[in-house]
Design a protein that fits this description.
The complex is a heterodimer. By secondary structure, chain A is an all-alpha fold. Chain A is built from twelve helices and no strands. In chain B, the strands form three sheets. In chain B, strands 5-6-7-3-8-9 form a six-stranded mixed β-sheet, sandwiched between helices. Classes of the chains: A mainly alpha, B alpha/beta.
Chain lengths: ~260, ~280
């Protein structure tokens, strides 16, 4: 119970703070508008592989990125609060979970509600199988986001925060996980990179269940890839965080 | 209460702490002083268990800080700027209660804000705070968990004279409350006012340790004499256009002076700052 209480206090602090910065929401709205404008232009160019589903495809991409985009803020937080995390009784897991929940409510929730309204015609039509698949893909995307956050928490403890790394990571994930560009349309040689990102499977299944877009592999196989990949990423991410903390202690690999 | 025994710490091949031993007693204010890069913050990091010594032993209340996070409320210089600026000091302390893993209610937070003199600003946003108010907020954070030991990295850095004075008074109050305080700082007059004992380190080695009066008594020089005039033949130290002498026997020294060649003379008992400069020199080289 005490652990949950600590997580909720951190989350509450972040939520209160976030609501004090309305400009952040205006910035988010601007970003979403640009992405949808690009989708609109793309659909007028014929849509290529996506046919007439360009805008819903991009809406689904925005939905997913709103749900999972917690890893790069984690990198910043673990970097700037480094000595607090390492010296205070709080565990890195609680610190991470608190901010994760806070981000989810303060940042993701408003965007997800807005995007759900836009995607409502598709959500409304869902059958039981697709609803379950949608729920599974969203849940696993969240777990995948947590696991990637663990990696970035370790990077934050080890290295100085650099906004360029944050931007590059966001672009990398958006590009290779197929958030805005279908993985099928990427050169075959780089598909392996996409397959190694758990988000790829979550996004693919999410779109398949919601929009009926073709999947990279049979859906049943992707469910297995998603679940196995996410669990492995979560274990590796957490191990890497604690390995980094140990390396800081023993080998003093800490920014001075 | 805190024991360092022949502690060595290296960052890669660079040994920054070279066999330092010292003890901090319960209820005292202990200052660690030295030039930038002398190893002060590294000692604090080892004290709270962020880094492990390569050799030697560290115990905090009999416990190795690497095995269990010690009950030390610590404020590092590098994390001072990290806050939720549009929240209030009360909300900031609630957040810190989660970091320290302690349960505190609003009453306790208000009590702490009263101790540090911020109660009247409890509803203000943190971004409106002056540097002095920030310093009080930092001290409120370290008071929050009610741990017996408080560690402060550069508590006076960047503060104006009035805020420095406020912090000195607060530290004295904390000592009266029974807290043991370890701090690093460069502001010698303030250290002299607040610390019971100090340790001077240079390039990772302990130069001297003890009570301030005792240390000054142990020094070879008892007075600092600054002169404007023609006394070059006595090999003075030149500083700020004045000629400085560190003197053990004042009477004997004055007898050696030719006052007809002296325009101005100032004699004062040696201060910690002068002793520091005399022991370590103006620069780190």
């Amino acid at each position: 119970m005490k652990v949950i209480k600590r997580i909720l206090i951190i989350a509450k602090t972040l939520i209160k703070d976030r609501f004090m910065y309305p400009e952040a929401y205006i910035g988010g709205l601007f970003y979403y508008s640009i992405v949808l404008f690009v989708a609109y232009l793309y659909s007028h160019l014929g849509g290529g592989f996506l046919g007439n589903k360009v805008i819903p495809y991009y809406l689904a991409g925005l939905f997913m990125i709103s749900l999972i985009a917690h890893e790069t803020p984690t990198y910043k937080r673990f970097s700037v609060w480094r000595e607090e995390i390492l010296s205070k009784p709080i565990t890195p897991d609680i610190f991470l979970a608190g901010f994760f929940v806070g981000d989810l409510i303060a940042f993701s929730a408003p965007a997800l509600v807005a995007l759900s309204l836009l995607l409502f015609p598709f959500i409304y039509r869902l059958g039981i199988y697709d609803s379950n698949l949608l729920f599974l893909s969203l849940t696993m995307a969240l777990v995948a986001s947590l696991s990637v956050s663990y990696f970035f928490a370790a990077l934050g403890l080890r290295f100085r925060y650099d906004p360029n790394i944050e931007t590059a990571t966001n672009l990398f994930i958006a590009f290779f996980a197929g958030i805005f560009v279908p993985v099928q349309s990427l050169p075959a040689k780089v598909h392996i990179i996409s397959y190694m990102i758990p988000y790829t499977w979550a996004i693919d299944l999410f779109r398949y269940s919601l929009l009926g877009t073709p999947t990279l592999f049979p859906a049943k196989s992707e469910i297995i890839y998603l679940m196995v990949g996410t669990v492995i990423a979560l274990i590796l991410g957490r191990l890497y965080l604690y390995y980094t903390i140990n390396a800081i202690r023993k080998r003093k690999v800490i920014i001075r | 209460m805190i024991t360092f025994e022949d502690v060595h710490i290296s960052y890669g091949k660079n040994e920054v702490i070279k066999g330092i031993s010292f003890e901090v007693n319960e209820g005292e204010i202990f200052g660690i002083i030295g030039h930038n890069g002398a190893g002060k913050t590294t000692l604090l990091r080892a004290m709270v268990g962020i880094i492990a010594p390569d050799k030697g032993k560290i115990l905090v209340n009999g416990v190795n800080p690497l095995e269990r996070k010690p009950q030390i409320a610590v404020l590092f210089e590098s994390t001072k700027g990290q806050s939720f600026l549009r929240l209030t000091p009360v909300e900031d302390l609630e957040f810190y209660s989660a970091l320290y893993g302690v349960d505190v209610d609003k009453e306790r937070i208000h009590e702490i804000l009263k101790i540090v003199g911020l109660y009247s600003a409890k509803d203000k946003k943190l971004y409106t705070f002056s540097r002095g108010m920030w310093q009080r907020q930092f001290l409120a954070r370290v008071l929050l968990p009610d741990f017996p030991i408080i560690v402060l990295d550069e508590p006076w850095l960047g503060l104006d004279v009035s805020a420095q004075r406020e912090t000195v008074e607060l530290l004295k109050r904390l000592k009266k409350m029974g807290k043991t305080i370890v701090l690093t700082a460069h502001e010698m007059p303030l250290i002299e006012r607040v610390c019971d004992r100090i340790m001077l380190i240079n390039k990772g080695r302990k130069v001297i340790e003890g009570g301030i009066k005792e240390l000054l008594d142990r020094l070879e020089w008892k007075y600092e004499v600054s002169i404007v005039g023609d006394v070059e033949s006595l090999n003075p130290i030149k500083r700020d256009g004045k000629l400085i002498f560190y003197v053990k026997d004042l009477k004997e020294f004055l007898q050696r002076l030719d006052f007809s060649k002296i325009d101005e003379i100032d004699i004062k008992p040696i201060s910690l700052e002068e002793a520091y400069l005399r022991l370590l020199g103006d620069k780190n080289d």
